[in-house]
């Protein structure tokens, strides 16, 4: 449980990424992940 923000997003437990990363991934299509 990261915090109230995570609960608000109602994201799956598998997706334990930062809000910024998640927001970008959710808004933009699954492009070539530069990791």
UniProtKB/TrEMBL annotation:
Bias-annotated ranges (Polar residues): 26-35
- Lineage, top-rank taxon, reads Bacteria
- Ranges of biased composition (kind: Basic and acidic residues): 14-25
Q: Where is this region: Disordered?
A: 1-35
- Protein name from the UniProt record: Uncharacterized protein
Query: Which species does the entry assign this protein to?
Result: Allosphingosinicella indica
